[in-house]
C-alpha cells in the first residue's frame, strides 16, 4: 500500500470533511452520521459498519450526486457542526480535574475492541480496553492508547453441519480499516525501530481517532523487514512463545519509543494486563537517558506513575518466557544498558524457586513472568472487582514472602461498560427523555427517574427490542446456510420458529471450560421441559468462539448444536456463528435475561452482563465477579448468592449443584415472573425488577464510573506521588533501601512482654536495629481475626533506646486484650514517600 492512497481519494470540495468524519471512530457509538454512510453506500454500510470503507469504495459519480443533494448536504453540514461542538465542548475532565493530568495517560493493551470494523481484539480484555477509551473520550480525559495492528486479527468462526467449529483468518487490509498512517510534524510516516537479534525490526505507526482520544497502533509489515519479521504482528494470541515475545517487545519497547519519538511525555503509564510490561522498562531507560542515572534510580523515579491492572485469576494465566529465549531476544536491547538479563529476570522472576537473586537460577529453570515484572516496575496495581482483589492478593502472595495475603496492597476498580456503545435505539430514546442528551458524558449521580416511565411504555420498549433481535437472528441464521445444512427442518434452522413474545435467554461468550457454557445441559430433560412448555416457553440464543486449540470448548459447541437439533426443542435454541462486537450488541439489546455461570474463581469480573442493563435486560448469574457486588434480590438472580471466596475456594466440583440451582431459578423464579401478567398482558413484577436494575446498576457499572474511579483512586494520587520523585529523591530512596538491606540480615527482636490491665494490654518489644535508622522502620503488632475479635494491626511506638546495649530500642503499643500468643510483633521498612510493601516487601516477624 502507499501513503498516497490516503490523499488521492477524490472528494468534492463541499464534502472534504467526510475524511475526518469517517476516520473518527466516534461513529461507532454516536450514530449521528449513520445516515450519511447509509446514503452513500447502503450495502457496504450494512455489511461492514465501516464508514471509512464506505467512503473509499463509493464511486466518484455517487459522490458527485450526493454533493448536489440538498438533504445530504444539510445532514453533512449538521454533522460537521456537531463534531466541532463536540471537540470544543467543556468536559468532566476540563471542569473538575484539569490540569492535574494534562500531560496525559498512556494506556497499553495487547488488544482493543472498538468496533467489529476494526478487528484487533479477541474478547473481554480488548472490549474493556475499547470501552475504556471511549469513556475517556466522553469524559475528556487525555488518554493515548497504544496497541498492535494485527494483519489477521482474531479468527472468524463458522460451524459445520456436524457442529465442528471452522476457523477463518481473513486478512486485515490496513487501508480498509478506519485508521490512517501516523505522520510526524514533517508529514513523514512515523516509524519506530526495535532491535531484534542481528537485525532491527521497523514498525509502521498508525492512528485511530477515538473521539477525543487517540489509539496508536504498530505493525511490523514493513517491506524492508525480513519476511519472518513482517509477520510478527500477524495474529493475536499466537501459541508460539517466540512470536509472543516478539509481539510483547514490539508493543512495549516499540510503544514507548513511539511516544518518545512523538515527543509525548505522558504523566501516567497504565498497563492493561502484564503483556506490555517491557514498556515500563523502556520508560526507565528513557529516563536514564534524560537524567544520566543508574537503572535502579530510574526504576524508583518512574514507577510511582506506572499503574498495572491485572485481569488474571489463575497463575496459569501469566505469560512466562524461558531465559534461553530471552537471552536470544533481549540481549541487543539490553546491550548498552546497566541492566543485564539476570537483573531483568530478577525483577520478574517466575521460577518455581521463589525469590531467586540475579544469577541464581539455572538457565533452564529461569522464567520471566510478565505480571511480576509489571508489578516490580509499578507504583500501584489493581484488580478488577472486589472478589478479584482477594483472588489477586492470594495469587501475588508468593511475590511478597511472609506477608499475609490481606496486607498485599492490591486495589480494585470494578470494570464497567461504555453505555452509549451498548444501548438500543429504543432505550436511547427512553433515557434521553428521562435523563437528557449528554447523560453519558458526565457522572450520572442523579438516580434516573425510571419511575416516571409507565409500565406500558417500558414493556413496549422491551417488546420492540426483542422483536428486532428476532428479526436480526432470522437474517443471521439465513446467511448461516440454514437451507443446505438442515434440509428437513428448514424453518427451525432459519429461525422462523423463534418467537417475538417468548422469554428469551442469552448466553454469549468464549466457549471454554471455566465459563461452563454446558451448565444448562447437565440436565437436558429438565431443560427440554422448560423450553417446550406450552404456556410459559423459553427460548435460548447462544454465541461464542472456542480458541482454536481448545478441544473442550469446541466440544461444548458441538453439544449445543446437537441439542438444538432435537425435535422437542426445534427452533427454540439457536446458535449464532462468529460472535463479535456486532453480534454482542444485538444480543444485549434484545434478550430478556442474560446468563453468566463461570466456575469460581476464574472470572475476574465479567462484563457482558453489564451490557444488558441500559436496555432493561436482567441478569441471571453466578454470584461472582461484578455480580457479587451488584446483586440484590430486587435486581436479578444469583446462583449461590452470598457465597464467600473461602467457601468457593474450598468447594469441589459444584457444577452439578450449580446446574440444579440454575434450573430451579429458571423454573420457579424467572419464568413465573415473566409470565405473570395483568389483563392487558403486562408483567408488573418483572417491570419492577427492570426498573430497579436500570436505575440502580446502569451508571454504577458503566465505563464512565470506571474511568472516574481510575482518575480519583489512582491517576491523581499517583501523579502527586510522582511529582515528589525528583531524580534527587529517587537517588536518596535507592541509597536508603540499599543501606537498610545491609543491616536487614542482622536486625532482630529481643524480649517481648505483655502487661494486661482489664480489657487492655500493653505490649513492649526490644528491637536490635544494627545501626539502621529507627525512623526508617515500622514496628507493628498483629493479631489475626479469631473468636476474640477482628484482625488488629497496631503501630508500636518507640519508647526509648535501651541504654545497656547499642542500637537496641524499646517499642510499645496498647491494644485490646487477647490470649497469650495472639499478638506477634513484626518489623518492616517505613517511608511515606514509598508505596510499601510493594516497593520493598522486606518483613521480619518475631519468631
Ligand atoms: C463484552 C464482550 C466480551 C466479554 O464478555 P464476558 O462476559 O466478560 O466474557 C467478550 N466478547 C465480546 C464480543 C464482548 O462484547
Automatic annotation (TrEMBL):
**One Pfam family named in its UniProt record:** DUF3417
Q: Which residues carry this modification: N6-(pyridoxal phosphate)lysine?
A: 611
- Which reactions appear under catalytic activity for this entry? [(1->4)-alpha-D-glucosyl](n) + phosphate = [(1->4)-alpha-D-glucosyl](n-1) + alpha-D-glucose 1-phosphate
Against InterPro entries, the record matches this protein to: Agluc_phsphrylas, Glyco_trans_35, Glycogen/Maltodextrin_Phosph, Glycogen_phosphorylase_DUF3417
Keywords for this protein: Allosteric enzyme, Pyridoxal phosphate
Segments forming domain DUF3417: 11-118
* Molecular function (Gene Ontology), one example: glycogen phosphorylase activity
Coiled coil region boundaries: none
Q: Name one GO biological process term.
A: carbohydrate metabolic process
Q: Which NCBIfam families match?
A: more_P_ylases
Q: Which family does it belong to?
A: Belongs to the glycogen phosphorylase family.
Q: What is this protein called?
A: Starch phosphorylase
What is this organism's lineage?
Bacteria, Pseudomonadati, Pseudomonadota, Gammaproteobacteria, Pseudomonadales
Amino acid at each position: 500500500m502507499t501513503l498516497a492512497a490516503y490523499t488521492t481519494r477524490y472528494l468534492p470540495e463541499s464534502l472534504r470533511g467526510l475524511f475526518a468524519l469517517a476516520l473518527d471512530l466516534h461513529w461507532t457509538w454516536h450514530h449521528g452520521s449513520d445516515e450519511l454512510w447509509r446514503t452513500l453506500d447502503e450495502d457496504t454500510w450494512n455489511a461492514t459498519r465501516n464508514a471509512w470503507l464506505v467512503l473509499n469504495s463509493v464511486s466518484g459519480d455517487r459522490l458527485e450526486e450526493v454533493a448536489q443533494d440538498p438533504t445530504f448536504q444539510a445532514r453533512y453540514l449538521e454533522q460537521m457542526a456537531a463534531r466541532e461542538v463536540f471537540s470544543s465542548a467543556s468536559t468532566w475532565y476540563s471542569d473538575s480535574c484539569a490540569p492535574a493530568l494534562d500531560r496525559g495517560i498512556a494506556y497499553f493493551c495487547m488488544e482493543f475492541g472498538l468496533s467489529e470494523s476494526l478487528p484487533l481484539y479477541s474478547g473481554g480484555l480488548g472490549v474493556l480496553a475499547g470501552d475504556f477509551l471511549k469513556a475517556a473520550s466522553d469524559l475528556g480525559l487525555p488518554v493515548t492508547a497504544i496497541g498492535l495492528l494485527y494483519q489477521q486479527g482474531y479468527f472468524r468462526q463458522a460451524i459445520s453441519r456436524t457442529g465442528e467449529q471452522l476457523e477463518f483468518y481473513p486478512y486485515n487490509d490496513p487501508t480498509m480499516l478506519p485508521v490512517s498512517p501516523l505522520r510526524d510534524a514533517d508529514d513523514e510516516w512515523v516509524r519506530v525501530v526495535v532491535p531484534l537479534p542481528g537485525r532491527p525490526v521497523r514498525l509502521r505507526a498508525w492512528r485511530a481517532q477515538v473521539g477525543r482520544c487517540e489509539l496508536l497502533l504498530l505493525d511490523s509489515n514493513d517491506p524492508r523487514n525480513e519476511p519472518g519479521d513482517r509477520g510478527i504482528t500477524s495474529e493475536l494470541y499466537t501459541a508460539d512463545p517466540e512470536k509472543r515475545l516478539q509481539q510483547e517487545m514490539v508493543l512495549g519497547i516499540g510503544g514507548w519509543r513511539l511516544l518518545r519519538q512523538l515527543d509525548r511525555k505522558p504523566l501516567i503509564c497504565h498497563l492493561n494486563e502484564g503483556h506490555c510490561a517491557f514498556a515500563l522498562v523502556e520508560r526507565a531507560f528513557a529516563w536514564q537517558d534524560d537524567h544520566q542515572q543508574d537503572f535502579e534510580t530510574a526504576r524508583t523515579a518512574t514507577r510511582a506513575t506506572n499503574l498495572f491492572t491485572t485481569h488474571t485469576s489463575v497463575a496459569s494465566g501469566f505469560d512466562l518466557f524461558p531465559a534461553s529465549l530471552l537471552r536470544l531476544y533481549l540481549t541487543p536491547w539490553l546491550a548498552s544498558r546497566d541492566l543485564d538479563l539476570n537483573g531483568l529476570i530478577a525483577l520478574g522472576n517466575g521460577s518455581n524457586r521463589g525469590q531467586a537473586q540475579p544469577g541464581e537460577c539455572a538457565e533452564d529453570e529461569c522464567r520471566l513472568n510478565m505480571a511480576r515484572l509489571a508489578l516490580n516496575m509499578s507504583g500501584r496495581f489493581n484488580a478488577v472487582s472486589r472478589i478479584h482483589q482477594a483472588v489477586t492478593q492470594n495469587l501475588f502472595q508468593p511475590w511478597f514472602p511472609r506477608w499475609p495475603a490481606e496486607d498485599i496492597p492490591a486495589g480494585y476498580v470494578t470494570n464497567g461498560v461504555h453505555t452509549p456503545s451498548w444501548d438500543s435505539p429504543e432505550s436511547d430514546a427512553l433515557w434521553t427523555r428521562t435523563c437528557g442528551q449528554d447523560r453519558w458524558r458526565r457522572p450520572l449521580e442523579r438516580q434516573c427517574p425510571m419511575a416516571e416511565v409507565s409500565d406500558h411504555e417500558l414493556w413496549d420498549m422491551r417488546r420492540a427490542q426483542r422483536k428486532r433481535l428476532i428479526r436480526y437472528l432470522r437474517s443471521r441464521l439465513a446467511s448461516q446456510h440454514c437451507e443446505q445444512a438442515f434440509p428437513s427442518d428448514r424453518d427451525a434452522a432459519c429461525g422462523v420458529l423463534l418467537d417475538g413474545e417468548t422469554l428469551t435467554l442469552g448466553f454469549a461468550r468464549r466457549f471454554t471450560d471455566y465459563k461452563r457454557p454446558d451448565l444448562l445441559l447437565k440436565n437436558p430433560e429438565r431443560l427440554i421441559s422448560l423450553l417446550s412448555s406450552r404456556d410459559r416457553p423459553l427460548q435460548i440464543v447462544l454465541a461464542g468462539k472456542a480458541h482454536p486449540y481448545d478441544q473442550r470448548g469446541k466440544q461444548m459447541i458441538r453439544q449445543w448444536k446437537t441439542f438444538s437439533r432435537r425435535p422437542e426443542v426445534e427452533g427454540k435454541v439457536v446458535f449464532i456463528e462468529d460472535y463479535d462486537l456486532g453480534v454482542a450488541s444485538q444480543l444485549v439489546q434484545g434478550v430478556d435475561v442474560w446468563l453468566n455461570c463461570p466456575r469460581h474463581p476464574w472470572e475476574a469480573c465479567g462484563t457482558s452482563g453489564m451490557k444488558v442493563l441500559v436496555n432493561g435486560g436482567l441478569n441471571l448469574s453466578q454470584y461472582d465477579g461484578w455480580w457479587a457486588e451488584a446483586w440484590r434480590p430486587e435486581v436479578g438472580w444469583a446462583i449461590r448468592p452470598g457465597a464467600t471466596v473461602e467457601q468457593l475456594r474450598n468447594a469441589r466440583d459444584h457444577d452439578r449443584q450449580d446446574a440444579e440451582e440454575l434450573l430451579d431459578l429458571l423454573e420457579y423464579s424467572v419464568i413465573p415472573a415473566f409470565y405473570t401478567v395483568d389483563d392487558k398482558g403486562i408483567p408488573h413484577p418483572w417491570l419492577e425488577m427492570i426498573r430497579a436494575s436500570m436505575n440502580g446498576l446502569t451508571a454504577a457499572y458503566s465505563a464512565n464510573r470506571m474511568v472516574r474511579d481510575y482518575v480519583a483512586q489512582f491517576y491523581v494520587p499517583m501523579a502527586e506521588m510522582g511529582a515528589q520523585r525528583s531524580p534527587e529523591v529517587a537517588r536518596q530512596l535507592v541509597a536508603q533501601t540499599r543501606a537498610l538491606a545491609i543491616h536487614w540480615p542482622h536486625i532482630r527482636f529481643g524480649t517481648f512482654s505483655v502487661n494486661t490491665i482489664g480489657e487492655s494490654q500493653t505490649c513492649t518489644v526490644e528491637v536490635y536495629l544494627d545501626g539502621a535508622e529507627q525512623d526508617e522502620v515500622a514496628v507493628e503488632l498483629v493479631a489475626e481475626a479469631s473468636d476474640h475479635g477482628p484482625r488488629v494491626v497496631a503501630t508500636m511506638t518507640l519508647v526509648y533506646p535501651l541504654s545497656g546495649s547499642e542500637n537496641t530500642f524499646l517499642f510499645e503499643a496498647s491494644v485490646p486484650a487477647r490470649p497469650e500468643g495472639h499478638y506477634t510483633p513484626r518489623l518492616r521498612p517505613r517511608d511515606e514517600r514509598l508505596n510499601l510493601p510493594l516497593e520493598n516487601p522486606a518483613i521480619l516477624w518475631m519468631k
